[in-house]
Design a protein that fits this description.
The protein is of the alpha/beta class and 272 residues long. It has helices at 13-22, 34-42, 62-70, 106-111, 113-119, 131-139, 151-157, 205-215, 248-259, and strands at 3-7, 27-31, 48-55, 59-60, 75-83, 87-90, 101-104, 124-127, 145-149, 160-163, 173-180, 191-198, 220-227, 235-242, 263-271.
Length: 272
């Protein structure tokens, strides 16, 4: 049976996504960080992993983008969108006034910023590696710690939910991507392609690169910049476009962008 990695421990949204996407057809294996799950695929230790890449409230997951761009040689082969409902949970019997620390994954903290500002102003806010890790810390605490995590984590660790559905808005979704060592060669009528590249630090360089997409009438779904890491002020650009690399127009446009880039990496074509 193939192995699918995910961000653990048990009780994370990543585990939920892994269970729902795999539908019981793969063995699941947890990893302590997003980067470690992706690198396990890169090194051939597991077949695939599923990791969060973007949240509708709090934006992109930088650990996923950076690992894909700089620290691995893998491909996005599929995506899965999961509705997210955050909950603030405490040890049984704990009251709001007992709480001295609220912890969670940075994305979950960002998704619940209004609650933290309105109800926990002045309380220590601590980022940890996952929502389930935060819930585990609450279970092991003296009652002064709260966590923002999915309901499954409260069930798993026997915690009380003090503030249910505490994300800023109800329309909260996370896009997960499935990572594999080889690219997805399947072409459908509803595909997107993802690439990351950098341009010369000259006026009009990015405009020219994106113009190559416009020349082929290719619709860009997303663009985002991230620091290049090796020098202050230099960036790479992640873009998602409609279509598959096997489409002639997209292949031609991306090949031209590659020719005019200082750095270029194709991240995959996949259905959405």
């Amino acid at each position: 049976m193939s192995i699918l990695g995910y961000l653990g421990p048990d009780g994370t949204f990543s585990q939920q996504a892994a269970l729902l996407w795999s539908q019981g057809k793969m063995e699941l294996k947890e990893y302590p960080t997003i980067a470690s799950a992706i690198k396990a695929v890169d090194k051939g230790k597991i077949d695939m992993c599923i990791v969060p890449i973007e949240n509708s409230l709090n934006g992109s997951v930088s650990a996923t983008l950076d690992t894909l761009a700089f620290d691995s040689d893998v491909y996005i082969t599929d995506e899965y969108v999961l509705k997210i409902t955050q909950n603030l949970m405490v040890k049984k019997g704990t009251k709001k006034e007992d709480i001295k620390v609220v912890m969670s994954h940075p994305q979950a903290l960002g998704q619940s910023s209004k609650l933290l500002e309105d109800e926990f102003c002045g309380i220590e806010i601590k980022a940890v590696s996952s929502t389930a890790t935060a819930a585990k810390c609450v279970n092991e605490s003296n009652g002064e710690v709260a966590a923002i995590a999915p309901k499954s984590a409260a069930d798993l660790y026997g915690l009380d939910i003090l503030y249910p559905s505490c994300n800023d808005v109800d329309n909260n979704f996370t896009r997960f991507v499935v990572i594999a060592k080889t690219r997805n060669m399947k072409v459908t009528s509803h595909d997107k392609s993802s690439v990351v590249f950098s341009t010369d630090h000259k006026p009009g360089s990015l405009y020219h690169a994106l113009g190559l997409l416009g020349d082929q009438k290719i619709n860009m779904l997303k663009i985002e910049s991230r620091p290049m890491k090796n020098e202050l002020g230099k960036y790479v650009f992640f873009i998602d476009i409609e279509g598959n690399l096997d489409d002639a127009g997209i292949y031609f446009a991306l090949d031209r962008i590659k020719e005019n880039s200082l750095f270029f990496k194709f991240l995959g074509s996949y259905s959405y």
